[in-house]
């Protein structure tokens, strides 16, 4: 009888463990596997309103004299960025796109920065656009690659001033790049709707979307990510980078963001002894302030840029 009960117990534990591993692997595939169907991945993205000027700005961008650049990622993969020169300007914005997008998807931002007199570099992060990879790195390797793009621009433009700008995952990439030994001509950064910790973000989304707690699925998914992609979720955390940062930063976030909650902003501005400007936007969801509050948004950015140029 005891042997039978023990066998049932062990079988039950095995089924639970296998089920947990299967579920954790599914979470990895949904969140990070580039080959997962877009419809599955984006089921939670806020799509109630869209940038109505995007198509116009995308068509404008296609007509510009854009130069393709290529370097090696820290993963030794070919990664690409696109360079838009602005006459004789010697100031640069590097725009970093969000999750499952690409550099050209930043067309509205690129056009605004170009009109403000900046040269613009817009990379395709790993797993996006032409920068092929099997998985998204959510700002981990991306932040190190961003530092490589900065080094390239700096080496070719000795007296240039560089500002880093990112939205959502791109904002997290910018934040995590701040302690990647950036060159001294990086004079400021702007982040819009970024997350400070990937582990905390996934904990929130697991509870919101599946009504599940962090343990054990997220812990297992993080371990699977380490095995398959080389990093743990906890590795993507901007706290230390912000604590060590010395350059001015502009923080932007929608107050009704349900994808990357404003709690992320409230936490990140606690860290570091540097000049911070913080602006939130009433009733705005994820990365939508730039067109919902278009004039206010770009006035804020323009004024900030004049201070740091």
Describe this structure in words.
The structure is a single chain. The chain is an alpha/beta fold and 309 residues long. The chain has two domains: 61 residues, no CATH class; 219 residues, 3-Layer(aba) Sandwich (Rossmann fold), CATH 3.40.50. It is built from twelve helices and eight strands. An eight-stranded mixed sheet has the order 1-2-4-3-5-6-7-8, sandwiched between helices. A hairpin with a 5-residue loop joins strand 1 and strand 2. The longest helix is centred in the first third of the chain and has 30 residues. The protein is globular. The N and C termini lie far apart (79 Å). It comes from Oceanivirga miroungae. Its EC number is 4.2.99.20. It holds the Pfam family Hydrolase_4. Keywords: Lyase, Signal.
Computed Rg: 21 Å
Mass-distribution shape: globular
Largest sheet: 8 strands, mixed
* The top level CATH class name of the largest domain: Alpha Beta
CA-CA gap between termini: 79 Å
Number of strands: 8
SSE layout:
Layout: H1 2-31, H2 38-41, H3 54-62, E1 66-72, E2 78-84, E3 91-96, H4 107-115, E4 119-123, H5 140-156, E5 161-167, H6 169-177, E6 186-192, H7 198-210, H8 217-229, H9 239-244, E7 249-254, H10 263-268, E8 276-281, H11 289-292, H12 294-308
EC number: 4.2.99.20
Domain Serine aminopeptidase S33: 88-190
GO molecular function: 2-succinyl-6-hydroxy-2,4-cyclohexadiene-1-carboxylate synthase activity
Outline of this structure?
The protein is of the alpha/beta class and 309 residues long. It has helices at 2-31, 38-41, 54-62, 107-115, 140-156, 169-177, 198-210, 217-229, 239-244, 263-268, 289-292, 294-308; strands spanning 66-72, 78-84, 91-96, 119-123, 161-167, 186-192, 249-254, 276-281.
